[in-house]
Amino acid sequence: MQHIGGNSMELTLDRLTKQFGNKIAIERLSTTLKPGIYGLLGANGAGKTTLMRMICGVLTPTSGEVLLDGNSIDDMGESYRNLLGYLPQDFGYYPDFTGKEFMHYIAALKGINKRKAKIRTKELLEFVGLTDVASKKIRTFSGGMKQRLGIAQAVLNNPKILILDEPTAGLDPKERVRFRNLISNFSKDKIIILSTHIVSDVEYIADKILMIKKGKLLMTGAVDELIAIANGNVWSCIVPQNQVEQYESQYCVGNLHHNGKNVELRIIAENKPVSGAQPVEATLEDLYLYYFQDQQSGKSPEKKAGVKQ
Predict the structure, then answer these.
(1) Which residue, 106, 136, 278, 306, is CA-closest to 220?
(2) Residues 29-43: pLDDT tens digits?
(3) Which of 57, 116, 221, 285 could cysteine-pair with 199, CB 3.0–4.6 Å?
(4) Distance (Å, rounded) from C-alpha 150 to C-alpha 275?
């Protein structure tokens, strides 16, 4: 994994705002990204796709700008697009193309010459494990195979900035692990932004997490830094079955496990929820649940955490 700061390339998001009618999708979001893998976490509707489309230059910000090494990406135009690889959430495949034909087609769109496109296609299809089906039509591919083809096309031009929007949606656990490993292998000297609401997909591979809520950057930091915020606030407790609903209405319950007449609850709360509760080690998912479940108790988690901006 490429650790952040090992390269001079910098992608700066400067007070980015995007408004659709009366709805503000992204509000004055600022951060600087250096080579490494960034996990963009947020509930559905948090503004992740809007942010990624602005970084790709597909959407124009209402205000603010995206800068690469101090240069506006609008001014850079094609030279910026040449550095970019993008796998949108609703990526369109041509079912009658074979895997190989599709790669050659995308290479032509990206202005890669035929000879180079042939070599790169062969390398990448091998890398993503699709060599055996390279001459089969995409309509015969499984969801996982299509996603791997999506990754291969996104890195055809050996991009310095790779944007992946919900790339593991619809993949089974085995395919998700394989996908994560692919991303790690691609990450050298690149800025990779991986958007998801599946926390485990980024917990293992991200150098840094960007957590977005309602269009604002809630917090950012390395996985262990963010987990440290939740440490001391995660509890395991055994409660009678008939009290589960009461606890669910009062606390953020991360997990429940039925055990005979009792239920073991994993609760994320500042204070011990019940006298016998035992503290347990926090995970990134605990922190995510704490911030993205509307707190019934009326406490604002934003005020509690040492939010790093």
Answers:
(1) 306
(2) 999 999 999 999 998
(3) 285
(4) 51
Nearest to 42 by CA among 209, 169, 167: 209
How large is the average pLDDT for residues 298-303? 42
pLDDT of residue 32: 97
- Give every CB contact of residue 173 below 8 A, 6+ residues apart in sequence: none
Indicate the pTM of the whole model. Answer: 0.86
Give the Cβ contact number of residue 48 at 10 Å: 25
Compute CA distances 106 → 4, 55, 102, 276, 296, whole Å.
30, 20, 6, 59, 49
Which amino acid is located at 75 in the chain?
D
- Separation between Cα atoms, residue 189 and residue 186, nearest integer Å: 9
In Å, how far from its chain's centre is CA 210? Answer: 9
Q: State residue 172's pLDDT score.
A: 82
What token pair was written down for 240? 């009678």
- Highest mean pLDDT range out of 40-49, 80-89, 98-107, 171-180? 98-107
3-state secondary structure the chain: CCCCCCCCCCEEEEEEEEEECCEEEEEEEEEEECCEEEEEECCCCCCHHHHHHHHCCCCCCCEEEEEECCEEHHHHCHHHHCCEEEECCCCCCCCCCEHHHHHHHHHHHCCCCHHHHHHHHHHHHHHCCCHHHCCCEHHHCCHHHHHHHHHHHHCCCCCCEEEEECCCCCCCHHHHHHHHHHHHHHCCCCEEEEEECCHHHHHCCCCEEEEEECCEEEEEECHHHHHHHHCCCEEEEEEEHHHHHHHHHHCEEEEEEEECCEEEEEEECCCCCCCCCEECCCCHHHHHHHHHCCCCCCCCHHHHCCCCC
Class at the top of the CATH hierarchy for domain 11-222: alpha beta
- Distance (Å, rounded) from C-alpha 268 to C-alpha 265? 10
Give Dmax (Cα) for the chain. 70
Name the amino acid, one letter, at 94.
Y
